[in-house]
Amino acid sequence: MTRSTAFSFAACMAVVGLASTPAQAQTTEVVASGLQNPWGVAFIGEGRMLVTERPGRMRVVGADGRLGAPLAGLPSIDAGGQGGLLDVITDRGFASNRTVYFCYSEPASSGGGNSTAMASATLSSDATRLGDVKVIFSQSPKVSSRSHFGCRIAQAADGSLFLTLGDRFSRMNDAQTLDNHHGKVVRVKATGGAHPDNPFVGRAGALPEIWSYGHRNVQGAALAPDGRLWTSEHGPQGGDEINRPQAGKNHGWPVITFGENYGGGPIGDGITSKPGMEQPLHQWTPSIATSGLAFVTGDRYGKAWQGSLLAGSLKFRYLSRLVIEGDRVVREEKLLPNLNQRVRDVREGPDGFIYLLTDDRDGQLLRLLPGR
C-alpha cells in the first residue's frame, strides 16, 4: 500500500532576500491515501498513527497503511468552511495513560455560532473509540464564522498545553484586546483552566488563559529542542509569519502587518512596525499559506538538517526548510516543488522520519525519505 515518488529541489529563493541552499533529490513515500481533508497526525506506537479528517472523523492508520474505521466518541463538531475536526496530539505520557488532545470547531449550545475548542480523551486499548472526553478549553466568544479557527496544539515539558486561536476573520480587531480569545495563543493545564504562570492571570479585564496576542490565524506550532514555542501564521495578502510567542507579548495584528487587504490596499495605517509590538522572525510575501510546523531533531536527514524548522505551504504546495541560528532564520530551502499537493501538516515521527499530510478530498499521509 506504499509507493515512492521522486521530486527535485528548487535551488532558487524568492522570499525576503534569503539565500537558498542546493540539496539532493528527495523522495516521498505514500503511507496512506483516501483521507478526506486530513488536518493533524499523531503517533501512538507500533508504527500506527492517529489522523484527523476535517469533516469530523479521526482514524487510526496502521503500520501497513490501512485506514481504520472512524473512532467513536467524538463530541459534536461544526464542520464547514475552514472548520471541523482539526489538530490532534498525544500526551507525553501516552504510553501509560493513552491520553490524546484534539481541537475542533465547537457549535454553540444555543443561539448559533461556533468557536475553537480543545478536548482531552482516552484512546481505548483496541484503538476503536475515545472515552472520558472532556472539553478543557473553549474559545470565547462564539461567533458566526467559517474561518480562522487556528487550532494547533503543543504540549510543554510541564504537561501544560499551548493552543493557537484565529481571529475569526470578521473580528480581527479583537486580536488587540484581552477580553476575548480571538487572535491569541492560550496556555492551559492538561486538566483545564488557565496555567497559573500565564502573564495576565489576575489582571482586570483580561482572560487568564491568554499567553500572547495580536495574532491572525496561527496554523503551525512546534516546540524547539530548547522547549520554546515557535508558530507559523497566515497573513492576509502577504505577510505570512514565523514567530516565537512569549508570555504577554503583542504580535501586532492588525495594527502592523507585511500584508495588505485582499484585492489590494493597506490594512489600517499600512505600517509594518510599532513600538511595543513584536516583529516576525521570518515573513513570506507573497503568502505561501503556511500550515504545519516541525523541528528536525534526529539524524535521518544528516547533520545539516538537525535544528531546521519545516513548514508546509498550502498555496504553493511545497515544504520549506528554514535554517535557524539562535532566534534568526538565515536560509530557506524549498523542498518538493513538484509535489502538487497542499501541505497541511508536518510532523517528526518517533522513528526520526518527517511525515506530511496533504489537504485534499483524497488526501495522503506521506513519509519524507532522505536524499540520495
Description:
- This protein has one helix spanning 94-97, and strands spanning 4-7, 26-35, 38-45, 48-53, 57-61, 85-90, 99-107, 114-123, 130-138, 153-155, 161-165, 184-188, 210-213, 218-223, 229-233, 240-243, 282-284, 290-295, 309-313, 319-325, 328-335, 343-348, 354-358, 363-369.
- The chain is mostly beta strands.
- It has a single domain (4-369), classed as Neuraminidase, CATH 2.120.10.
- Residues 1-23 have low confidence and may be disordered.
State the CATH architecture: 6 Propeller
By CATH, the superfamily comes out as TolB, C-terminal domain
Classified by CATH, the class is Mainly Beta
H-E order: EEEEEEHEEEEEEEEEEEEEEEEEE
The total count of strands amounts to 24
CATH topology-level fold name: Neuraminidase
Question: How helix-rich are the residues, as a percent range?
Answer: under 10%
Domain module count: 1
Structural class by sheet pairing and helices:
mainly beta
Major pleated sheet: 5 strands, antiparallel
Shape descriptor: globular
The order of strands across the largest sheet is 1-2-24-23-22
Q: What is the CA-based Rg, rounded?
A: 19 Å
Low-pLDDT segments, ≥5 res:
1-23
Let me know the average pLDDT: 93
Report strand %: 35-45%
Short description:
The chain has 372 residues and is mostly beta strands. It has one helix at residues 94-97, and strands at 4-7, 26-35, 38-45, 48-53, 57-61, 85-90, 99-107, 114-123, 130-138, 153-155, 161-165, 184-188, 210-213, 218-223, 229-233, 240-243, 282-284, 290-295, 309-313, 319-325, 328-335, 343-348, 354-358, 363-369.
